[in-house]
Amino acid sequence: MSTTQFDKIYHGLSPEVGKFRVANSGMAWKGEENEKVVALPSGDIKWAQWFRVARNFQLRVGLKDRRRETFDGFMREDHDKLASLLKQYFAVALEVKDVTFKGWNWGVTDIQGQDLAFLVSNKTAFELPLNQVANSNIAGKTEVSLEFASSLSAGKKSSRNAPDEMTEIRFYVPGTHVRTRGSDAGSQKSDDEEGEEMSAAQAFHDAIKEKAEIGQVAGDLVLSFEEVLVLTPRGRYDLDMFIDFLRLRGKTYDYKILYSSISKLFLLPKDDQHVLFILGLSTPIRQGQTRYQYLVMQFAREEETTAELNMSEEDIAKYDKLKKHYEDPTFEVVSGVFRALSKKKIIGSGAFQSRGGHPGIKANFKAVQGDLFMLEKYIFFVSKQPMLIELSDIHQCVFSRVGAGVGATAARTFDLKIITKGGPEFTFTSINKEEHEPVESYLKDKKIKLKNEMVPDVDLLAAGAGDSDEEMQSVASSGDERPRPRVGGDDDDSEEDEDFEASSSDEGSPTESESDSSGGGVTASDASGDRELAKGSKPKKLSKKKAKTKEKGSDDEDEGEDEKPKKAAAKPKPKPAKPKKDDDAMDVDDEKPRPKPKPKLKSTTKEDEDGPVKKKQKIST
Prior knowledge:
By secondary structure, the protein is of the alpha+beta class. Helices cover about 25% and strands about 35% of the residues.
């Protein structure tokens, strides 16, 4: 029996090269690496097609059970040889299929067996194998997204020489579609709705789900849970658990999640009434533009379930800690089945306890509120977008009150900034101050470098008091004057105090002429008080009226001080450091030189008339 062999041929989508042989008994392909053999008996071969593909030319063979096999890598000159062999051995003509090279991105879709063909001008542009479609979603009203299962999702490690793979493709499907009775598209709805109009995108999505077996998955159902509350992505879904994968069915989205793509399992108590069961996925699921790496389910602690697995005793014995019959709380049943089928350990809450006795504390990340769990090897922030931080990746933790002012809020909460070794920083805010001690003890036990930038409450109050003193000093000072922080006889300001304290009568009450000329009120009383303070009977006391006058009315000082040198000598403690040249020269004027000449001593009557007028002009200026 003669055999014809072709080298460097690929089978299907496999990157492995092999040898293809044709004989009277049938066809066969054998790989060079793992020596896998694909045999096609002559009695099963029904038709054959010749395609131009990326890997040169493809031989597509149709079988009697409506399956098909493809072999890539043929050269152009192999066409005539293959055509004669197929006609000679199997009485099958080799049909040449034209492929369009226009490069257009609009056309018509056609489901051909197990393939989705995209046609441009009635010629095939490309084809997609529907058996590789893992999920189909409607992203918007007119957009349908197809996600494909990765060849590495079955637990295989990626290789440096592994080829690139397409993981998603989107189709824009505008317009509407009228569904007739018995139509395959939208078969999940009632067939009595004859002639119902629906969007073309919905019809295309339903057809893909049916042909790709997304909605009705082949295989035996092990266990099913209905209306499970899922917090991320939010909604209620039906959980159908099979031997190798999980089917998550919602009103809008359906997901097929392989157990091999589950990287971590968490079972954490949210509060006294609810428990969170979280799946960490190596391949995130997607809703529109949002990707979800964690699937967060919430169960009531008191809810119980009675379930029986659709598995034989022999199959159950192959899995660790898997039982035939369950009569336990729902979260224990779900977590137990997931642990057995995915062969992953469940990570529970560690030894950390908050002030309230919970394994987690309330915190905010940016504008998102969630629960911060301190686990044995991780810090897990569970929210709308959960974040998992490994303790081994933490460089430093900083306690602070960043963004909180001095007040009640700062006294009740603190912030925790986590700096990772890779560079990113995570700042969790609005943590109850009572949780500072247990969090600090937890981080110290894990031997994580800590830095405390929190300000004690006593220092906060002192800082507030200090600010008020500085404000008083700034009011008391003006221009080039030094601030006068204390009331009384400081040595630096004693000479200035003398001029205002040597008095004998009325303690700075306003005169009638000053009140009338200055318009009354606080300003007039302050101005008159500066002149009359020289007659006051209380020594060693600087009033607030003087402080305000020194800032506002410097001209009044000049006139008021012209009268005071005669009485200044009677002061028991004069400052000898600055000798007085004459009665008109005042110490205050020596420290503050004026651009205009000093006025000479005038009579008391003249001063009473002119003083308030100058004060009023000063204020108006």
